[in-house]
Amino acid sequence: MKTNLWIDTDPGIDDAFACAVACAHRDKLNLLGISTVAGNQTIDKVTGNALYLTHLCNSDDVPVVGGSPRPLIRVPHPTADIHGPYGLGYLVPEACGKKVAAKNGIVYMYQTISSLPEGQKATIAAIGPLTNIALLLKTFPEVKDKIEQIVLMGGAAYGGNVTPTAEFNIWADPEAAEIVFQAELPIVMCGLDVTMKCVLTREHLAQLASGGSFQKKYAEMLRFYFDSPAYRDLNTTALHDVVTILYILDPDLFCGEKHVVHVSCTEDTCRGTTMVYDVGYSYQKKERQNVLLLNQVDLPKFQKAVMDALFSY
């Protein structure tokens, strides 16, 4: 039986790779829809990117809806320096004629997930700031009964990429992240502990650049990463968001440990820090749900899965 999957995203170069991997496996994934959230770029740009990417990946039938244009209470911080002026590196998204499926993405997400047949649930792959997911859970708490798990890209047990202690998706909307982590739902945390180990190389870039039209477009996105100050002197670049999709497809590619996670919602340098506690820790004397925090990957199999998906088009 296929996994019912909803993707919440802010495309984003690595988001684009995640979407391609998901769309390449529609024999295993029932793609219910894609919602967008302000993060890597503004909501208009990331929504346009999602429409373009589903078209590019031969998935025009997958509905795309726009979500929140800003964090719950914070100011948005687009990352054009990391993902380019349009969010897709050197690639300029083309007009494809596809339109959003609904004006209110949160309501559409709720209606789609809640209308699944009796006995079926949805997995949510959350690969941007968690604003939309927090709004969904707070506005329609009954939807939790139809959610199998939330597999999210965000956070880290150690370190960060936007501050010394915070990863971008969590830092962008820490209040939303804390709501999601405390929602008493099964959560798989694909944080920097594992995603920084999930890399492609310049050799993979060359393979994509020598491929067909589709692969060349993804090479243009990946090349932007390698040209960035963070990676220009390195042979590898991380594909953070892809981890969520490949975990859903093949959990055995990864290893992890169960922990309790809270998010710092301060205004200081600790903003967005994911505070990871050992199993059994009781926060404020209340039991909290365990989070599976991934920390290891079978890298050769990860790389092969990504490249096989990209060359399936």
Description:
With 313 residues, this protein is α/β, with parallel strands linked by helices. The protein has a single domain, classed as Ribonucleoside hydrolase-like (Inosine-uridine Nucleoside N-ribohydrolase, Chain A, Alpha-Beta Complex), CATH 3.90.245. 35% of the residues lie in helices and 20% in strands. The protein has 12 helices and 11 strands. It has helices at 13-23, 43-56, 80-83, 105-114, 131-139, 168-172, 174-181, 192-195, 202-209, 213-227, 242-249, 299-310, and strands at residues 3-9, 29-36, 64-66, 122-126, 147-153, 187-190, 199-201, 236-238, 254-263, 274-278, 291-297. The strands form 2 sheets. The chain has a 9-stranded mixed sheet with strand order 3-2-1-4-5-6-11-9-10, with helices on both faces. The chain has a two-stranded antiparallel sheet with strand order 7-8. Strand 4, helix 5 (131-139) and strand 5 form a beta-alpha-beta unit. Helix 1 runs parallel beside helix 2 and helix 5 (131-139) crosses helix 7. The longest helix is centred in the last third of the chain and has 15 residues, at 213-227. It is globular, with a radius of gyration of 18 Å.
Brief characterization of the structure:
This protein is of the alpha/beta class and 313 residues long.
CATH superfamily: Ribonucleoside hydrolase-like
What is the CATH architecture assignment? Alpha-Beta Complex
Query: Structural class of the secondary structure composition?
Result: alpha/beta
Unreliably modeled segments: none
Sheet of most strands: 9 strands, mixed
- Number of separate structural domains: 1
Q: What is the fold-level CATH name, i.e. the topology?
A: Inosine-uridine Nucleoside N-ribohydrolase, Chain A
CA-to-CA gap between the ends? 23 Å
Which radius of gyration do the C-alpha atoms yield?
Answer: 18 Å
Helicity range:
25-40%
Order of helices and strands: EHEHEHHEHEHHEHEHHEHEEEH
Number of strands: 11
Q: What is the top-level CATH class?
A: Alpha Beta
Q: How many helices does DSSP assign? A: 12
Strand proportion: 15-25%
Shape: globular
Round the mean pLDDT to the nearest integer and report it: 94
**Strand order within the widest beta sheet:** 3-2-1-4-5-6-11-9-10
